[in-house]
Write a structure and sequence with these properties.
alpha/beta; about 350 residues
């Protein structure tokens, strides 16, 4: 069957081709009855818009390139899902590229997406320093928003969680539960999220113990590093392990279990991001929840403003408020009351997660 054209819809609806185009593209207001006739004719004929032809006419493709550092990190699939929904609502499709934490591959993917005429780019940079040149060059060509991580001030619009506020929530919680010999398990390198969380720990941990800011072990954002890090720091017998993300925290819990350590009685463990595995772990991981849906919505909004030419001002840096979710890895265990005479004891109900939210930053 030949493709249905705008001319076919115009013939069946009794409207001009120009009117049909306006109705289906939504570019100009049209009378309600006219719009109803056009849409009814389009549905009856099975009309589907030709995006390639539209791109030639409008010189836009309706696509946004999204470059991730590593899709295997469980935090990113949830973010991709929310971004896809937010951009689809604006009539835009997503082209996804995973650079596997390699700034050289990242630059190649950015160049490839630009060659495919994407209208805009969303980038979570692999490295704050080594990603900067490619990101800055791309931002000079198309609207670009940095997400979750930065590349230095003024490079592009950016949206991320307030990592400093998130770490403050963790340290306040540990102080309130009597922890003092805290230790930070983080990631080395210049990834901005890693550096911000590490810096916030160093700035705030001294209030718990003067030696705490120096108790730092650095590797990468992985379960494997979490396991290895415990072996590096366990001789100092910390009473809390502050982990830079949930993968590190889960690895740390696995190794502590192997060592026979009591969590949280002997040592508390906290994470960052609130990936699904954090709630499913045993014990559940106390963590800083990133507002993923809000992160995606803000990124889509920033892109939309740039694409519509309604904003041509300075680059904007938006920081979103995090939330602390307290689970069993740091909360005191719930003790069941002793069974009374003639009663059969029942286990206590599982502790419900508790949430504390930081103030919104911009």
């Amino acid at each position: 069957m030949a493709d249905v054209t705008l001319r076919d819809v115009a013939r069946v609806s009794g409207c001009s081709v120009a009117t049909v185009s306006r109705v289906l593209a939504g570019t100009r207001p049209v009378g309600a009855e006219t719009a109803r006739r056009v849409r009814a004719a389009a549905d009856a004929l099975g009309y589907r818009p030709n995006h390639a032809a539209r791109a030639l006419r409008s010189r836009t493709t309706g696509t946004v390139g999204l470059v991730l550092p590593q899709i295997t990190n469980p935090f990113y699939p949830a973010l991709v899902r929310e971004l896809t929904h937010a951009l689809h609502a604006d009539g835009r499709a997503v082209l996804l590229a995973d650079c596997d934490d390699d700034p050289v591959a990242e630059a190649e993917y950015i160049a490839d997406l630009l060659s495919r005429q994407v209208d805009a780019l969303l980038v979570i940079p692999a490295d704050e320093d080594r990603s900067r040149e490619a990101v800055a060059a791309a931002a000079a060509r198309v609207p670009l928003v940095l997400m979750d991580r930065g590349c230095g001030p003024g490079i592009a619009d950016s949206v991320a969680v307030d990592n400093t506020a998130g770490m403050a929530l963790v340290l306040d919680h540990l102080a309130a539960t009597g922890r003092r010999r805290v230790c930070f398990l983080g990631a080395r390198g210049t990834v901005s999220a890693a550096a911000e969380r590490r810096g916030a720990y160093a700035a705030g941990a001294g209030a718990l113990d003067p030696g705490a800011p120096d108790r730092v072990a650095l590797g990468d954002f992985s379960v494997e590093w979490g396991r290895a890090a415990v072996d590096e720091v366990w001789a100092a017998r910390p009473d809390a392990l502050v982990c830079a993300n949930d993968l590190i925290a889960i690895g740390a819990l696995q190794r502590l279990h192997q060592l026979g350590a009591d969590v949280p009685g002997e040592v508390a463990v906290t994470g960052f991001d609130d990936i699904p595995m954090a709630a499913l772990s045993a014990p559940g991981v106390t963590t800083v929840r990133q507002p993923v849906a809000e992160l995606a919505a803000e990124a889509a909004r920033l892109l939309g403003r740039r694409l519509s030419d309604s904003e041509d001002g300075p680059r904007r840096a938006i920081r979103l408020a995090p939330e602390l979710v307290v689970r069993e890895s740091s909360a005191p265990a719930v003790t069941a009351p002793a069974p009374g005479p003639g009663r059969i004891g029942t286990p206590p109900a599982a502790r419900a997660p508790q949430s504390v939210r930081a103030g919104r930053g911009t």
